Amino acid sequence: MTTQAQTHPSANSSGQTLRTRLYKWQVGKKAALTAAMILFVLFLLFPFFWMILTSVRPEPDFLRMSREPFNVSGITFNHYIFLLTETKFLRWLWNSFFVATIASTIAIVIGLLAAYSLGKLRYKGGGLAALVVFITYLVPPALLFIPLSSVVNTLGLSNSLWALILTYLTFMIPFIAWMLSSYFKGLPKELSDAARIDGASRIQAMVMIDLPLVLPGIISVFFFAFTLSWQEYLYALTFLRTESKFPIALGVVSVLQVGDIFVWGPMMAGAVLGSVPVVIIYTFLMDYYLAGLTAGAVKG
């Protein structure tokens, strides 16, 4: 009894020490993860901070940026005024919106049908077709613009926005088909089979049963495809020559650069304004859609 009584305090002390170590390890782990996340967010947001800071920096401050990069003598919006009044920025904005919207819509329609075929249908050569689609998506655009330029010239689309729409489909359709095929593969086969038994055709089953279930994925890949079109630069540089037909990515860099001189203020102002539509899409429209979808799912 005496021996057991003497061992109890030691056991309790050992247990408390172990719990203390586990608690400290958990606290240290959370602190390390939090610090890493903060550093990652700062690293991610710093380019946007620098872009905004440069767009409102007065002209004399650019002369001492190398010595005092964060010293701003004041705030000016002259760069934005110059961009909107002395350049064709609003035209570039419309060109980007037109190309991104049309190209993304066409790519969604074609890519959706391809994804349904790859994800839901079983036929000989389906695995090979999926592999070809995936490999096509992996081909760098830098390897395609030379043969695509020949296609564009043959079709008479050179120096037109439709040249961009046509060429953007080459990397958007494989991406959409590959991404959405995984959504279709995850759908229960019994749902569409039940619709077919009730007399629905394959197309009716796809439209009434499968598409509503993969609608969040369709919205997501559409926004991503829109972003890819909005920020594309290489094909725009290759196929367009007229300033009034430039998209934002090409117009801001080409017009606001004279030789080796970069007009940093208006250029950064154009980058800020050019990123606004994408920020609006990902910040508001996606959240609004998901909130409405969740509310509709539980509505009595």
| Total of domains | 2
Query: How many strands?
Result: 2
Quote the distance from N terminus to C terminus.
66 Å
Largest sheet data:
2 strands, antiparallel
* Element string (H = helix, E = strand): HHHHHHHHHHHEEH
CATH homologous superfamily placement of the largest domain? MetI-like
Q: Give me the side-by-side strand order of the main sheet.
A: 1-2
CATH class term of the largest domain: Mainly Alpha
Oligomer: single chain
Low-confidence parts lasting 5 or more residues at pLDDT below 50?
Answer: 1-5, 291-300
Helix content: over 70%
Radius of gyration: 28 Å
Q: Characterize the overall form.
A: flat
CATH fold type of the largest domain: MetI-like fold
Report the portion of residues in β strands. Answer: under 5%
